[in-house]
Amino acid sequence: MLATIPFPEISPEIFSISLFGMEFALRWYALAYIVGIIIGWRLVVAAVRRPALWPDSTAPMTEKQVEDLLTWIIIGIIVGGRLGFVLFYNPGYYMHNPAAILRIWDGGMAFHGGLLGVIIAAWIFAARQGIARLSLGDALAMAVPPGLMLGRLANFINAELWGRPTEMPWGVKFPSMCHSPSLQGCEVAGEWFYTGTEAARHPSQLYQAGLEGLLLMILLLLLVYRLGWLKTPGAIMGVFLIGYGLARCVVELFRQPDAQFQAPGNPLGYAWQIGDWGLTMGQILSLPMIALGLFFLLRARRGA
């Protein structure tokens, strides 16, 4: 019998309340966004409090500007993440159902879209405030990995974005959430249930939490506080883009492809394919990140 790691069966909802006939719930995924943004904010504040870390021993912005930037970043994450999912992963559906674009509570956020939204928001903010864009990019790059780690852990708790079937001993059999007992054949709405046909799968959410989140965060903080890389504007941003892009490309080998890319002749879910070889959408979107990261890193180190 194939050994697997038991799924913890934690409810996606931390708690819910009813007000005026409407149900409001706090979910782990929303909490991951909130806590990730707060940790990122505090990391940037801690860095600007140490002018010696920055070029000419001068922080690129004040603590007040960091707080003001936070609002721009939140808007960039939400708008960019949602539009990125709509445009990159399922444009056909949303073209025929435009009202569904606004239903972000149903799920559907793309990291690459959120990153693009943050870049645009930060670019505008930097221009309005007279802040050096490359140093601002370095500060934001340092702040992102904690949120990535928490977001992927929330994906695991939600039993979503799981991996491909595996026979490795750390495979996980992910259950389904019972929403409608009569339609799904489950017993209690709001509880996990198993059909008995689940396959053990790579817990790819945990792979991403470790690589894109924890490992990348440790690397960036070492470069900032031990090697002083903030003094060469653009270097930390370059390492982040390369690190995330490489990690995502690797994990895509173990991650179950998005449903809209699965087809009888395309079992690996390639979004672009030539013969038996191809790339998933996550890999396609990550390759430009790696190239851009190399550009910023080489430019920064050449000027150091």
- Gross morphology is globular
- Structural domains: how many: 1
Number of contiguous helices: 9
Strand count = 6
Main sheet strand line-up = 1-2
Proportion of residues in helical segments: 40-55%
Helix/strand order: EEHHHHHEHEHHEEH
> What portion of residues belong to β-strands?
5-15%
- Counting helices, strands and paired strands, the structural category is mainly alpha
How big is the Rg? 21 Å
Largest sheet: 2 strands, antiparallel
Overall residue-averaged pLDDT value: 88
Low-confidence stretches: none
Could you tell me how far the N terminus lies from the C terminus, measured between alpha carbons in angstroms?
A: 57 Å
Task: Give a description of the structure.
The protein is built from nine helices and six strands. With 304 residues, it is mostly helical. The strands form three sheets. The protein has a two-stranded antiparallel ribbon with strand order 1-2. The chain has a two-stranded antiparallel ribbon with strand order 3-4. It starts with 12 loop residues before the first strand and ends with a helix. The mean pLDDT is 88.
Short key terms for the protein model shown above:
single chain, 304 residues, two-stranded antiparallel ribbon, 9 helices, globular
